[in-house]
Amino acid sequence: MFRPGLDKLPVYGVEEQDWRIKVDANESNRNLPPLVAERVEGRLSYVAFNRYPDIAMTELREEIGRGSGYDIDNVWLGNGSSEILEKLFFLYGGVGRSIVFSVPSFSMYAIYAKISESTAVPVPLEADYTLDKEKILRAAEEHDAKLIVLCNPNNPTGTAIPLTVVEDIVRRAKCPVVVDEAYMEFYGETALPLVAQYPNLIVARTFSKAYGAAGIRAGYVIANEEVIAMLRKVSMPYHINKLTLTVAETIFQMRDEFIPYIQQTIIERERMAAFIETETDITVYPSSTNFLLLKVEGAGELAKYLASIGIAVRSFANAPMLENCIRITIGTTAENDEIMSAIKRWCKGAK
Ligand code: PMP
Questions:
Q1: Residue of 17, 119, 186, 333 with fewest CB within 10 Å of its CB?
Q2: For residue range 83-125, what is the model confidence (pLDDT) as tens digits?
Q3: Quick one: pLDDT at residue 208?
Q4: Global confidence as pTM
Q5: How many angstroms does the Cα of residue 27 sit away from the middle of ligand 1?
Q6: Average pLDDT of the chain to the nearest whole number
Q7: Domains of the chain (ranges plus CATH)?
Q8: What's the gap in Å between 351 CA and the centre of ligand 1?
Q9: What is the spatial order of strands in the sheet that 325-329 belongs to?
Q10: Beta bridge partners of 291
Q11: Atom 1 of ligand 1, residue of closest alpha carbon
């Protein structure tokens, strides 16, 4: 017999198919920049496959610490930020312990709450998907929360929480606050410098989005030493493999190479938003990420139409608080051109 309740968990599924244009998972629309790829290939040829990786992951943690203004003891790594988030739910949650997060947001928060046997306290965002900090703080107080999760900017709505609001929540909360900054590079504001000031602040980051490395599964967390020491205790030995460590190190050292891609994505995001708003009746939510959330009558049909011509988007057509919404990751300029004309065609009656 499995542990009660686990069999009811939804599977985190994406439709795996040979899509012509894949804009459903908020990945980067291009592979590593050529200079980075070259360095990665060179370094991988020196990997000692017969030996375990460095258990303390010293080089990458030091590198990230240096680049972020912190010490190695303030940094830990995960198989994607997913693993870090799961571990944080495990560390702070548990039977009878509440974890507060907004909805709609990254669907895995509810699943991590369930797996860790914590009590999930979902707090609805406002109608325009902005966050009311008083509602978060009140929910945390009422439920004696052991952790607050802020997704900034938020997936799948694209909306951002101003840094002043994040800081106010962190200052007033009586529990740790994790800020999931998976899409931060497309927004520009980060809570990272505040970690030095607030021992209850934890910042999670990923290599999967702006750094175009979803395939290596790497994420990191910056927090005070005590939190990092606990994360270390609950991590498996050698949990990040050598290939991932090597590639992530190179990417982090060469992170400036990604700036043109990030800027281009932001320009393309605004170009698409402006086009869809002026050329169609579709509502486009303001986005601080590498994707757009659209609301349109018949969103499910639009997603099906796009799929029929080889374009994968993420449909939330039937999801609570996201009715008639679809999420489209920003692609290359050519891909975006094709997506925009397909959307316009559909709005004019193409099926
Ligand atoms: N947080 C948010 C808000 C996300 O959207 C995602 C990816 N969809 C993740 C965390 C996890 O990303 P990864 O495990 O690839 O770092």
A1: 17
A2: 999 999 999 999 999 999 999 999 999 999 999 999 999 999 9
A3: 98
A4: 0.97
A5: 10
A6: 96
A7: 15-31+258-350 (3.90.1150.10), 34-253 (3.40.640.10)
A8: 33
A9: 283-284, 291-295, 325-329, 314-315
A10: 329
A11: 182
